[in-house]
Structures are given as C-alpha cells and as structure tokens.
Automatic annotation (TrEMBL):
Pfam families listed in its UniProt record: NUDIX
Cofactor: Mg(2+)
Molecular function terms from GO: pyrophosphatase activity
Protein name per Swiss-Prot or TrEMBL: NUDIX hydrolase
C-alpha cells in the first residue's frame, strides 16, 4: 500500500523557497510582486505574482433560470455574460460577500445560500481564490450598483447558458463552472 502524504508533505514536494520579494505595484484591488526563489534543484529563478483579496460568485436560480449579468470587461475588450460576483472586502466573510454581491448586482435577496466549492483562477501567476455559492428561494428587489458599475441583469435557461458558452458570450471560469454545477443539479438534484 502506498503512503498517503500529509498536506505538509504534499506541499513540500516541489516547494520553491522565497529568497527575496520586490513589490512592483499596489493598486486598489491587486498588487504585483516579483519573488526570487530557490527551486527544488537548487537553481534560482523569479516568479511574477499577482496578489488578490479573493472573491465570491453566486449561482442563483429563479423560476428554473440562472440569474446573470452582462457587462463590459476591459481586459477582454468585449461584453461578457457572467454570474454575479465580486471581491471580498477586508475582513468580510465569503457568505456575506456573496449575499451582498447578489443584491447589489441583481437586486435579488436569497432565502438560502450554500457554498458549492472554491477554486483558484490562475495559480500560475495569481493567488485569487473564488468561493462559489448556490442561492435559492430568491426574492426580487432593486439593484444597488457601485458608481463605476454598468451592467444589465437577466435570467437564462440552461440551454441558453450552454449555447452562450459555445458562442463565448460566457467564457469565464466561474460562470462555466456554475453552469456545469447547475447541469449536474438538474440531473441529480444535488449540488
């Protein structure tokens, strides 16, 4: 029988030891640093790392449709259809952030919300972690957008969501993950 490594043993297997860190940029949301690291073979290399406070996203179902927002994404230079999401405020718990973002971006309050999973968006260069939630028993209300947010809210069927993925109207990892989680939920009744 093979030895199952502990979490610590697993994380040490290919560890890169940080020798020096230089902060290059510090913005409102992200920061960029360059780390000089010692590789497992003893060689020295550099790693460019984007630091992010973390975020939440919400798969919200209302009348058997997924609530989505459409907004312009400057890095992609195009509109995207996405599930409601946003960054964590300092000290904020992910569940509270998910409830807040759902309300702000869509106007919906939820009767129940539970965590589905969490994932890192781009672990090759960033530490952003998104916690994905599932919200049901929605109650329609008014959107509360930030002053620099411009978006529209709509609800789409699973078939529309799958078509939007093919058309790349939906092309971000959090929304694609949510669509497939919803598809599994519709097939099994479990999230």
């Amino acid at each position: 029988m093979r030895h199952k490594p502990s979490k610590e043993e697993f994380n040490k297997k290919f560890e890169e030891v940080t020798l020096d860190t230089e902060q290059i940029f510090k913005g409102k949301i992200i920061s960029l640093q360059v780390d000089k690291v010692k590789l497992p073979n003893g060689n020295i290399s550099t790693r460019e790392i984007v630091r992010h406070p973390g975020a939440v996203a919400v798969l919200a179902i209302y009348n058997d449709k997924m609530i989505v927002v459409e907004q312009y994404r400057k890095p992609l230079e195009k509109n995207q259809i996405e599930i409601p999401a946003g960054k964590l405020d300092p000290g904020e718990e992910p569940k509270e952030a998910a409830i807040r973002e759902l309300k702000e971006e869509t106007g919906f309050d939820c009767g129940s919300i539970k965590q589905i999973n969490s994932f890192f968006t781009s672990p090759g260069f960033a530490d952003e972690k998104i916690v994905l939630f599932f919200a049901e028993d929605l109650i329609r209300g008014e959107m509360e957008l930030d002053e620099d947010e411009f978006l529209s809210c709509e609800s789409i069927t699973l078939e529309q969501a799958l078509e939007y993925i093919k058309e790349e109207k939906i092309s971000d990892a959090k929304t694609i993950t949510a669509v497939y989680a919803w598809q599994i939920y519709k097939l099994t009744g479990k999230i």
